[in-house]
Amino acid sequence: MSETNKNPQRMVDQAIAHETRPPAQVMDDEALITLFQSGDEGAFRQLVEKYAQRVRNLVYSIFNDPSMVDDIAQEVFIRVYEGLPKFRFESSFYTWLYRIAVNKSRDEMRKRKAKRFLSLHALLENSNQELQTKLRVHQEDNDAKELVSKALQRLPEKFRVPIILKDIDGLSYEEMAEVMQCEIGTVKSRLSRARGMMRRILTPLLAER
Fold this sequence. Notes:
By secondary structure, this protein is mainly α.
């Protein structure tokens, strides 16, 4: 067995450290997974390099704590490494990956019992045009940033996650349902309620802008 097989953590660390490097060859996820399942460790490294930043962004959006991002991302990809040999292509790789990342983040939230909220930067980058166009707040505006953070902090986790998946990462309703492990109707309902809650909380701020 190779050294990378003995130490998947080392492989993940190395892949995350080099995730900004342009890939030598563009391959789709299915081809890379098939290669990995056939014993090609390099294929896993390419998957990590491809998705590391998206996982980081997801984790940061949940915790708003840069110090936690790399550690949780590492644990996510270790779980992926351990589970990928049995991956059966019944869902897309990245929805499976997101489900692992969301579940890992939930585990961490339960352990730490920390307050979580999205950063103002993440909110401004989301694809919810109504909020995006109305909430014109500069990063240097600490009062506004604090107000938005408090509003987001008030969202229960089951409403925060749909906003992250849809408005930040752009997943479809079908993909969100796979990640959240619920029906599409539940996804739409939670997302609608979450956006409504945000608008109601932010109304005083939005009216001033």
